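Two folds, back to back.
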Amino acid sequence: MIMNLHPIRSRPTKETLMHNIRTLPAPSPARAALALALALFLALSMLVPAAYAEPSAGADATVEKPVNLRADALWSDAIVTSWSPVADAQAYEVYRSTSEPGPYELIGTSASAEFMDVGLNSNTTYYYRVAAVDGSGNRSDLSDIASATTPDKLYQLSYYRNYYPGDTTIASGGMLDGGHYLRLSAITSVGPEGGAGVDWSRPGYQFVGWMDMATGAVYQAGETYAMPYGDASLRALWAAQYTVTYDGNGADGGTVPVDTNGYAAGDPVTVAPDEPTRTGYAFAGWLNENDGGVYRAGETFTMPDGGARLVARWAPQADAHQNALELDNDNLLAGDDVSFLATGHRQDEPGSIDGETRYVPVSWEVTSSIHGDFPAASPHRSSATMSDPGNYAVTASYAQERYVAGTGWQRTGAFETLSQSFTVKARPVDPVNPVNPTDPTDKRPPLVQVSKGGLPKTGDTAPFVALGALAALGAGGVLASRRKSS
């Protein structure tokens, strides 16, 4: 609490007052009243100095006096005092003087070990002493003296816009005491603290702080600044604003992000969460054309000079419907080979992007006893001998593989199958020239065997040829005889 006190005027001494009373003439009603007034004045004159003067008498030695007293000027009209706390002290009395010898007058009390003295004159030295008071009202001796001098003037704070070299546009931050603490203006409201100010927002640029032109220190808007004991100039610092552009690169669905934020070079940029889609492809991240890195949603990169362009990266996906299985011949005879060629979609792709896929033929099966594996390298061709007639189907299995950068193609564990039907017919037997049943591949005619009676066995064609020749000659003789008759 601060007490506004007036200087104590000099008062007549007790002896002078008593002398004047003794020399009064015989009492009268008026003089009796005057005597009473003088007596009351004497009593008050003895009480006032006791209340406001320094406690030179009546100090209690059991209460320790405060130590480590210090005084610091905050502004041209304010000084703060502080000291070490005293044990059992309930309050402290603060005394002040404009000269070191005194007299000191009580200016206020404090429950804590500090006191703010305001309403002072500028360029003036003030001296302070403090007494501690315990709960019984006992007062300590006065502390040692501490002093501080208030500043003698206010200083100008100036903000410079600094759009370009030599820009002289200035906004006043006010006239302030040296050592005064203030919060610096935002760029949208430049002016005295707490005022409306002017808007210095700059299209295409980002405000990055205020630079103290005397010290080179940089402060952010809203940061606390200590006014020096002299005029101060703060210059706005600017950085060109850059943007992030997202390129869908053939996207036909999903969402290609749009970032409307502005960034200064060196600022961190967080990749947007939205992602596009493209038929036949899997999204494989955003390729940063500046640093060559690939980024996913939520990851960050550093904004380069000139801005950033992120291009969608697509990993081709294999389509199981484009796997193929071809038979060389689907109409076979018993004992023929069935031959077939399997082709997986994208089977020969070398791989370059994480996440792309392909199908590779790995095995085939006709029956539980007729099956096998395709060659590891294309073309993936195989065959099987079909001994028995019947209707069959060959089924090929295709393994899905995914490309992993730095590792290569890896099996995913997924498989697709494709089947083709074919027929195997019984090989026919020629009743005239059958195939030697002991050796079906021997195309030579069977041996001729002659019976005991001289007649050929079935299968011997020579006698039939001779009989045919004789029949032809007989028919010719008959025709010649008829012509002669005619």
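---
second:
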Amino acid sequence: MTPQELPPPISPRQMDMLRAVAAMAWADGKLEPDEIRLMLDEFAMLFAKTEIERSALKTRLKDYLGQNIPLEEVVPNIKSVEDRKMTLRLGYQVIQASRRNPDEPMINLDEAAAYQRLVRILDLPPDVVADIEASIVPHEGAYPNGIIKSLAARLHKLLGNAN
């Protein structure tokens, strides 16, 4: 088997969550190279144990991030309520972090539309959605180590508790 024919080195559950978060990052039609590099570094640290595995994983995951799979295809695969909550939380944080300059709104129209689709597809109770949104307070300096590190830490915690 060539490397492209091998199954992904992370579980289907982890891949679905990664793809859903990536879809939110793609909502405005752009995934910046620095953003990709940072996400790959952080997720490789979570999902791989050795430097060789991390390097291979980054290469493989980059291909998945570049696919820009629609939310409607990937989100229905996320079955558990906890995974759905985490996906909503991460998706909400990603779109809030995508502002490229201070003159832009925190969430642009494309991202807002994608977020509403995510909420609809996840089909979580409105009070759960409201609680998740209220728990995320966007402001400068909220993530001293960066939004991606914050997201990676939360995802790692979820995956560590649920495996």
